[in-house]
Design brief:
20% strand, binds zinc ion, binds 5'-O-[(R)-(carboxyoxy)(hydroxy)phosphoryl]adenosine, 44% helix
């Protein structure tokens, strides 16, 4: 069967065709129209601009996804669309477009939770992946650990009490003058510095498996401000390296605790921050030492994309959870 996956929850408009046959997912096309260059001018995502850019892109990227896959709308068996969480105006563009397309062409429609979408990217790269597994989702808006007992169903066992890891990377990236979003640039810069140079508080909350990123963000900002006041130049590479090491160590520590307490033998890493090379290396080492299978999508499937939504949509279809014309978007989880 052919699944059209649609994603518009933040600053990427994406449409993909994923084929499911003989127990395997195959990506036939995965078109992503990124708005990053537009939002870079403002140092972050401007919701109104994001909604308008989705409207401009959604129709043409859907046609492109069909063309690249070599199929037409009449071949599509299922439409899967992200309905929550995310920016409400941005989500509404994808939801209304998908609804119109589904009902005008008599194609079944399913609603997909964006986080479920990120986790489902793993099925696109490892065909034999099966629940149960533990999943760590690290993105611009989320830092949570879930138990997945059944395909497409996540049970949160740990989360951040305040900001997300991606937000923490982006914030400090912006302050030290890196282009938005700072995560990827900070990842590279961290290789040039001394990761032990600056002592920062751990985002791993003592005695829990939860996170808090507000402390490390404030400590890094204080470090930058006091250096500026003393007329000292901030060693950006040392800050990037120390900040990254502290965050990665905290994520690895809480993940190890979650693996230990749940006894899960597979870890799925997902979300935009899963592209971080230091995090990937650290979790790969952790899993090896704990004899746990480590599943992480290629970088191209870590950020927001329609293919992951199509994969998550397949499980909604299996459970028979179809949407109708009353389908709506929601900003919340
Ligand atoms: O999943 P995603 O594309 O959007 C949300 O659902 O939030 O994640 C975007 C986040 C941004 O904060 C971005 O800076 C971060 O992923 N990111 C990275 C890297 N590449 C993207 N963070 C750290 N290292 C990277 N290499
Ligand atoms: Zn995302």
């Amino acid at each position: 069967m052919y699944i059209l996956g649609m994603e518009s929850s933040c600053d990427e408009t994406s449409a993909a065709i994923v084929e499911y046959s003989n127990g395997k997912f195959e990506i036939r096309s995965n078109i992503v129209a990124s708005q990053i260059e537009t939002h870079r001018l403002y140092g972050g995502v401007v919701p109104e601009i994001a909604s308008r850019a989705h409207i401009e892109a959604v129709s043409s990227i859907t046609s492109e996804a069909l063309d690249v896959a070599g199929i037409t709308l009449s071949d599509v068996d299922l439409i899967a669309v992200t309905t929550h969480p995310g920016l409400i105006g941005a989500l509404l563009v994808g939801v209304n477009f998908a609804k119109s397309l589904a009902f005008a062409n008599n194609i079944p429609l399913v609603s997909v939770n964006h986080i479920n979408g990120h986790v489902s990217a793993a099925y696109l790269c490892e065909n034999d992946l099966k629940a149960p597994f533990l999943s760590l989702v690290v993105s611009g808006g989320h830092t949570s650990i879930y138990v997945c007992q059944k395909e497409g169903e996540l049970c949160e066992i740990a989360t951040t009490r305040d900001d997300a890891a991606g937000e923490a990377f982006d914030k400090i990236g912006r302050v030290i003058g890196l282009p938005y979003p700072g995560g990827a640039a900070l990842d590279k810069l961290a290789y040039e510095g001394d990761s032990k140079a600056i002592k920062l508080p751990s985002p791993a909350l003592q005695g829990t498996m939860d996170f808090s990123f507000s402390g490390i963000k404030t400590a890094a900002l204080n470090y930058i401000n006091s250096s500026n006041q003393k007329g000292e130049e901030v060693n950006r590479a040392n800050l990037a390296a120390s900040y990254t090491r502290t965050i990665v160590e905290a994520i690895a520590k809480q993940t190890a605790a979650a693996l230990q307490s749940t006894k899960m033998k597979t870890l799925v890493l997902a979300g935009g921050v899963a592209a971080n090379s230091h995090l990937r290396a650290s979790l790969a080492r952790l899993c090896e030492s704990m004899n746990v299978r480590f599943v992480v999508p290629p970088i191209s499937l870590c950020g927001d994309n329609g293919a992951m939504i199509a994969a998550a949509g397949y499980f909604e279809y299996l459970y028979g959870r179809f949407a109708d014309t009353s389908l709506n978007a929601s900003a919340l989880d």
